[in-house]
Amino acid sequence: MKILELGHIVLYVENLERSRHFYGEVLGWDEIPGNAPLGVPAAGFTSGRTHHELLLIEVGPAAAAIPKGRRLGLYHFGLKVGDSDDELREVIAHLASHGIPIAGASDHTVTHSLYITDPDGNEIELYVDVLPPELWGDGATLFAPIRPLRLLRETDGASLRRDLR
C-alpha cells in the first residue's frame, strides 16, 4: 500500500455556524452546497483540489474541549496560502482585518509559517513554500532547526517568532 495524498480532515466543532464563518469567510474555503445526510449538523469545504478537504461536524457545547498543553493527537494541520513572503504578509493583514490573532510564526527553511487557532482551539499552520521541491533534499531540510520568522520588512522594526512548546 502507498498513500497518494492527504485527502481530508474532519473536525468536531462546538458551533457549526461559528466554524462555518471562520473556515469559509475568514480562511476562504469554498463551502460545498447541500445538507449532510449524517443526521447531525455538518458542512463540507474544498479548495477546489478534490471533492472535499474539510468536513465540520457539530457536537455542541456539552462536548469536551481540546486539552491545553502537550497531549496525544492532532498538534496542527497546515494550509498552503501561497508561494512568497509577500503573500504571507497579505495573510497577516487579512487575519488582522478579521480580528484573528497570530499565535506564532516560524522559519522552517522549507516553509515560512504563521500559526492561528480556530474557534474550537485547533491549531492551524498557514504557510508558503520558500524552497522549490528540487532543493528539499533528503530530509535534512525538513528537520533543519526552526528559526524566528523575520517576515516584516526592516522598516517595520519587528519580527514574528514562534516559540516551540
Molecular structure report:
The chain has 165 residues and is of the alpha+beta class. It has helices at 16-26, 85-97, and strands spanning 9-13, 30-31, 42-46, 54-58, 76-82, 104-107, 111-117, 123-129, 147-148. It is built from two helices and nine strands, in the order βαββββαββββ. It is 15% helix and 27% strand. Strand 3 and strand 4 form a beta hairpin. Strands 5-8-7-6-9 form a five-stranded mixed beta sheet. It folds into two domains: 9-58, Signal recognition particle alu RNA binding heterodimer, srp9/1 (2-Layer Sandwich), CATH 3.30.720; 76-156, Signal recognition particle alu RNA binding heterodimer, srp9/1, CATH 3.30.720.
Give a brief description.
The chain is of the alpha+beta class and 165 residues long. It has two helices and nine strands; from the N terminus they run βαββββαββββ.
CATH class of the largest domain: Alpha Beta
Characterize the quaternary organization of these chains. Answer: single chain
| Strand order in the largest sheet | 5-8-7-6-9
Question: Strand content of the residues, in percent?
Answer: 25-35%
- The topology string of helices and strands comes to EHEEEEHEEEE
Distance between the amino and carboxyl termini? 34 Å
- Mean pLDDT, to the nearest integer, reads 88
Rg to the nearest angstrom? 17 Å
Which fold does the CATH topology of the largest domain refer to?
Signal recognition particle alu RNA binding heterodimer, srp9/1
Low-pLDDT stretches are 154-159, 161-165
Number of strands: 9
- Tally of structural domains: 2
- CATH architecture name of the largest domain: 2-Layer Sandwich
Largest sheet: 5 strands, mixed
- Number of continuous helical runs: 2
- Indicate the structural class: alpha+beta
Q: Fraction of residues in helices?
A: 10-25%
Shape: globular
